[in-house]
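Bumping with the actual sequence this time:
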Amino acid sequence: MKNLTEIRNEALEKISACADNNTLNQLRILYLGKKGPIQEVMKTMKDLLKEERPAFGAQINEIKKEISENFEARRVILEEKEIHESMEAEKLDITLSGYQPQRGNIHPLILVQQELEDLFIGLGYRVAEGPEVECDLYNFERANIPKDHPARDMQDTFYINVEELLRTHTTAVQMRQLEQYHEAGEELIKVICPGKVYRRDDDDATHSHQFMQCEGLVVGKDIQLSDLKGTLLFMAKKMFGEGREIRFRPSYFQFTEPSVEVDVSCHVCGGKGCHVCKGTGWIEILGAGMVHPNVLKMAGYDSEVVSGFAFGVGIERIAMLKYGIDDIRSFYTNDLRFLKQFNRFE
């Protein structure tokens, strides 16, 4: 059996070499537990003379105290070491660049819509909105397209019921604005109406069942075709460049008379002729005309006193020309590689 001095020296040596608290606790049980070597030595006390027992017991208690104090001192050291190691492992290096979250872009169609809105607000127009599920009254009849009119075939859409449908043009918003302004007694109307419209078109590179329009309407006294041309020339220069020119070609729309198709000089070749404008030097961008007298009368206006002009442009059309996009379906595929190319403020 080991004597007390050997047990003490062995315990202190192992305590000093202990590297973690788990091992330290095991050593505490080993040396100070009921089955430890000190306890074994204490069993020999009964073999000593009565006068020798007090000194022997005092020696055992002194050694147990010394070993316990060393255990506690080592525990404190090991806990401080663990805290330090944990802090080192979790420490943030603030000199490194932070994580940069991915920034989204505004959709190119919304970019074009915002540009048009800013442009026309600067001219004194107001932005008007209306429901996408529209009444036949405002979508067709108030736009001078009565039931069974053949023009409805060109704007075949999705019907909710006989009298409600997904609007085929934002002309429906113009019809609502005409009515509201007349009821309010306003003398001058200047609004643009951007938004989604729907038609049963073929889903190909140049058509979509859903697309966006921005229509404009001006009604008041002495509004003339020259006012329309000046407005559209200003828009063309702002959207496609100061060097652009426009031309009018006779056309037919049910809600305007006279009606015109509007072309802008090609921004690629400057009007000389190229593959974009198919060698003509001109690109068709929108339809327009003077508001039809029947449209004014149905809204309550006297067409002999007031007149107006209206125009409608496809936002996809402008975006495709402005950004050189050759497939309308690209706007709706949610491909981030495509969408990241557009930033109005860069």
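The tokens above came from a reply further down the thread. Strands lie at 126-127, 133-135, 164-166, 189-198, 210-220, 246-253, 256-265, 282-291, 307-314.
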